[in-house]
Automatic annotation (TrEMBL):
Belongs to the short-chain dehydrogenases/reductases (SDR) family. PANTHER family: 3-OXOACYL-(ACYL-CARRIER-PROTEIN) REDUCTASE, 3-OXOACYL-[ACYL-CARRIER-PROTEIN] REDUCTASE FABG. GO terms for biological process: monocarboxylic acid metabolic process. InterPro entries: KR_dom, NAD(P)-bd_dom_sf, Sc_DH/Rdtase_CS, SDR, SDR_fam. Signal peptide: none annotated. The keyword Oxidoreductase applies. Its EC number is 1.1.1.100. This is 3-oxoacyl-(Acyl-carrier-protein) reductase. Residues 7-187 form the Ketoreductase domain. Gene3D superfamilies: NAD(P)-binding Rossmann-like Domain (3.40.50.720). Keywords: Oxidoreductase. GO terms for molecular function: 3-oxoacyl-[acyl-carrier-protein] reductase (NADPH) activity. The keyword Ligase does not apply.
Length: 265
């Protein structure tokens, strides 16, 4: 089995949704896991689950949009755990708002949560990885930042596209230190957040048009994260890997034909 024993992993937003699944999957493979999260109740719940897997767990309530808070928290992790080998920049949000209704605060909130936080946490962690000459950095982007334009997500799409550029350029800079930097771009993933804004009909349509005929699950992203965090991926860096069941490559004409066929039936 792929093993992360002896590694220390930090996951931002690691107590719910995709982040929670990533934290637990890393622990399943033997990594000690640190979780940054803003909700203390969610944090305690996931830490309890992580510890049940017989690995070390540490949780900190951190606002990752404030660099001083991030820097302090990372210092606490180093003092307690001694090192950080794996960083997963997962924290994110996607409240919809139409562009013509969007104000400056809406814009910068999404940029800060989805992009600036990635810079802040990586900037605080990277010097320790450089010193130990080892690291795995995985940034969670989105197909909205690559292919799919979605009304109401201009700010989110811009931020997630920024994560892609950040990943590629940082990979080039940190490669000499044996640090890999990659991004994962999920398609629609069935998280509590998605369930709260998607109707059952929306979910059925998504399952219908997806080549694999199902919705993505947090575990689909978590499993790839574990691979990228491991030494099995040591010759992979600067890449953006899409996890969407084939949604982005399916020919729209085929989808339309399938829809029309279903109506006839």
């Amino acid at each position: 089995m792929l093993s992360l024993h002896g590694k220390v992993a930090l996951v931002t937003g690691g107590a719910k949704g995709i982040g929670r699944e990533i934290s637990l999957e890393l622990a399943n493979h033997g990594a000690d896991v640190i979780v940054f999260n803003r909700d203390p109740v969610e944090l305690e719940n996931v830490l309890k689950e992580i510890r049940e897997k017989n690995v070390r767990a540490m949780g900190l309530v951190v606002d990752v949009t404030r660099f001083k808070d991030v820097e302090k928290a990372v210092g606490e992790v180093i003092n307690s755990m001694g090192r950080i080998d794996i960083l997963v920049n997962n924290v994110g949000a996607f409240p919809r708002k139409l562009f013509l209704e969007m104000n400056e605060e809406d814009w910068f909130n999404m940029i800060n949560i989805n992009l600036t936080s990635t810079f802040y946490v990586t900037r605080a962690v990277a010097p320790y990885m450089v010193k130990q000459r080892y690291g795995r950095i995985i940034n969670i982007s989105s197909i909205t930042g690559l292919y799919h334009g979605v009304p109401g997500l201009v700010h989110y799409g811009a931020a997630k596209a920024g994560v892609v550029g950040f990943t590629k350029c940082l990979a080039a800079e940190l490669a000499p230190y044996n640090i890999t930097v990659n991004a994962i771009a999920p398609g629609p993933i069935l998280t509590p957040g998605v369930k709260s804004i998607w109707t059952p009909e929306d979910i059925k349509i998504q399952e219908f048009i997806n080549p694999l005929k199902r919705f993505g699950m947090p575990s689909d992203v978590a499993k790839l994260t574990v691979f990228l965090a491991s030494d099995y991926s040591e010759f992979i860096t600067g890449q953006v890997i899409i996890v969407d069941g084939g949604l982005t490559f399916v020919n729209p004409r085929i989808v339309v034909k399938e829809v029309l066929k279903s109506f006839k039936e």
